[in-house]
Amino acid sequence: MGVFQLFPMATILVSLHFQIIFYVSNIPLAFAQNENQFIYNGFLQAKLHLDGSAKITSNGLLLLTNTVNNSYPQVGHAFFQFPLKFNTTSSGLSPSLSFSTNFVFAIVPQVPNVGGHGMAFTISPSSNFTNVAGNQYLGLFNSSNEGLTSNHILAIELDTALNPEFGDIDRNHVGIDVNSLNSTDSASAMYFSNKEGKNISLELTSGNPTQLWIDYDEAEKLLSVTLAPNGIPKPNQPLMSKSIDLSQYLLESMYVGFSAATGTLIPSNHYVLGWSFNKSGQAQSLDVSKLPSLPRQRKAKEIPRLMIMVFLIAVMLLLITITGAAYIIRRRKYEETREDWEREYGPHRFIYKNLYKATKGFSDNELLGAGGFGKVYRGILPSSNVQIAVKRVSHNSKQGMKEFVAEIISMGRLRHRNLVQLLGYCRRRGELLLVYDYMSNGSLDKFLYSNEKPNLSWFQRFRIIKGVASGLLYLHEEWEQVVLHRDVKASNVLLDAELNGRLGDFGLARLYDHGTNPQTTHVVGTVGYLAPEIIRTRRATTCTDVFSFGAFMLEVACGRRPVGQQGLTEDIILVDWVFECWRRGAILDASDPRLEGNYVGEEMELVLKLGLLCSHSVPTARPNMRQVMQFLDGNANLPELPDGSTCFGTLNGNEEHDFLLPLPSSSGKGSASSLSSTDSILINGR
Q1: Using the 8-state DSSP alphabet, how is residue 598 labeled?
Q2: Would you state the torsion angle of the CA atoms of residues 320, 326, 328, 330, taken in this order, to the nearest 10 degrees?
Q3: Above 80 in pLDDT, residue 565?
Q4: How confident is the model at residue 68 (pLDDT cuts 50, 70, 90)?
Q5: What pLDDT shows up at residue 391?
Q6: Residue 239: is it exposed, middle or buried by C-beta count within 10 angstroms (0-12/13-18/19+)?
Q7: Distance (Å, rounded) from C-alpha 670 to C-alpha 48?
Q8: Comparing 263-277, 565-579, 630-644, which segment has the lowest mean pLDDT?
Q9: pLDDT-derived band at 421, boundaries 50, 70, 90
Q10: Which range has the worst mean pLDDT, 77-81, 351-355, 427-431, 678-682?
């Protein structure tokens, strides 16, 4: 009995022994597979990180977007589940950035040869793409982070839509993207035929499987991209070879995978049939015979004669309906949105028909520019032959509209020679139109930074600075209410025919506040002009306007933006640079070189020092606008600047202290202490 019991136990131990040996022997292989290379001839057993519309089909296809789901636009991502080591240094060697990959893809549009919008092989520091947009952004970026150096994204795009905003060469190209969809290099889709010795065009949206090879040589710093129909050996000549140093963009730990996006009207199926990747050498070749098959595309069936008749009758009925509706639509062409409470604002309300005709139907030929809130058109009122500027702002929310219109009418009573006059408004179908005086010379920033405009003399610049200061003083202290602009900068200063500076574009910050969740707190303004305390408190004051005006003064005097870029990663802060010039006793070195030294030294030094003083990191140490005007007019002496870099720009840590400069005394409701959130009108620039 004991021997009989021992025999099964021995068998179990032997079996367990072999299982342990088999498991241990396979650990190095699995580790190598995950760490350096992998190959998928189909994705049935693949462990990928999928999100959005991405999925693996029953026969092993990786489907990133599809035409079955009626929800558009679509975005789909698929990444290898583990991050790979890229920009690392080991044993004193150079960073190991070389890699090789190849994959077979197919783009099958719902409408033949019309894609939307494409896909991309992606190397990213994260596999989380929750805040990206579809359409032309390919599921990689959105309008706020597109082009930022902090993205650290390399993508090889297969773009099937023409997007002029990103400089696309056509609707059928391959591009190398670094942190942006403005490709550093791109080429129309084609491959080099080794047999014929010439390039042959490829249609990315043909629905046929196509293979792409991507190879990066760290030693030569060369990125090569090669394209060919599936089943054809790798061509001898690549489609593109770009000299690029990826160590500037890739981080130590990066994810590799795919991203795809569809348009709002024309969807596409984006497939990946197989994928091979190697971080330490040449990627293995895919086995074409093992790749899953694409679904059979449906062929158009012969339409019966009866269906043709039904179709023709339907078309005739549709034409009759359209003809009948055309008359009604024509009558409603100039229809406006009017409510009972607007009757009292009659004199300030423009007729939409007049604005439509004044701008020639809001023609692109009359377009003056576009900002964050809408487009601005030039127009001539047919009744008075007066030139105007019309801003079209989309605003569908009714929340706060009555209060906002009341503020527009109130601000229409503002009268100052250095403010752009707001003439009135019009509402139509969820759209708000604001009517302003027309400034023939456009915005100041175009004179400062564009070679197309003539250079402004120092006399003109100093007059503009004083004019804007006078306008701000009027807003802060001299009108019946305290008005905050919240976005003082060169692009919001418009020049009239005599090149006088006028601060413009009022009212849109309040509109922005009314159209959002009241529990949400927003920071309105532009980076480089925002006072450090507004980031912490989310509250604008006259002191924050003074800070923006200080940045504006330095901008005009130096001919530089408050935050400029040097190289690919380094930012230059204008206030820091001017402060350094002052500390070494050469503050005039900060003047705009386009002036060629033609300026009044005392005035230039005053503007630069006053710009620094207004940029003080402690709000109470800044002068108010009445004191600023006293300094600019020469009616008061500018105090000495504190010799400490932490006093200017953004505070670090808890460096805020009670440092007060001896400024000339002034009274009035423009002081920071007398401003309250209940008696202020918040006004934003464009």
Answers
A1: -
A2: -170
A3: no
A4: confident
A5: 87
A6: buried
A7: 60
A8: 565-579
A9: confident
A10: 678-682
One DSSP character per residue, 13-74 reads HHHHHHHHHHHHHHHHHHHHHHHTEEEESSSTT--EEEEET-EE-TTS-EEEE-SS----S-
* Closest residue by Cα to residue 511 from 372, 413, 339, 415: 372
Q: Is residue 391 part of an annotated ligand binding site?
A: yes
Is residue 487 annotated as a catalytic residue, yes or no? Answer: yes
pLDDT band at 567 (very low <50, low <70, confident <90, very high): low
Residue 546 near residue 614, CB atoms below 8 Å: yes
Calculate ∠ Cα 276-277-278, nearest 5°: 135
d(CA 515, CA 666): 38
Q: Which two tokens stand for residue 103?
A: 């994959």
Closest CA to 628 of 575, 658, 664: 664
> Sheet containing 374-380: which strands, arranged edge to edge?
367-370, 374-380, 387-394, 431-437, 422-428
Residues 6+ apart with CB under 8 A from 195: none
List Cβ<8 Å contacts ≥24 apart for 513-520.
Answer: 513/400, 513/682, 514/397, 514/399, 514/400, 514/401, 514/403, 514/404, 515/395, 515/396, 515/397, 515/399, 515/400, 516/397
User: In what helix (H) or strand (E) does residue 423 lie, and over which residues does it extend?
Assistant: strand 422-428
- Mapped onto helix, strand or coil, the DSSP state of residue 602 is helix
Nearest to 632 by CA among 479, 498, 463: 463
Residue tagged active-site, from 487, 505, 545, 592: 487
CA distances from 374 to 142, 338, 355, 431, 512 (A): 18, 21, 16, 10, 12
Q: Quick check: bond before 117 cis, omega within 30?
A: yes
The whole-number pLDDT of residue 10 equals 47
pLDDT in tens, 345-379: 545 788 888 899 999 989 999 998 876 667 889 99
Residue 204: both structure tokens together:
């990315």
What Cα–Cα distance (Å) separates residue 198 from each residue in 185, 187, 188, 202, 239?
Answer: 21, 15, 15, 13, 12
| Burial of 441 (C-beta count, 10 Å sphere; 0-12/13-18/19+) | middle
Whether 111 has a pLDDT exceeding 90, the answer reads no
Give 658's contacts (C-beta < 8 A, 6+ positions apart).
618, 620
Residue 396 has pLDDT above 80, yes or no: no
Q: Which of 413, 437, 414 is nearest to 495 (CA)?
A: 437
122 C-beta neighbours (distance < 10 Å), count: 25
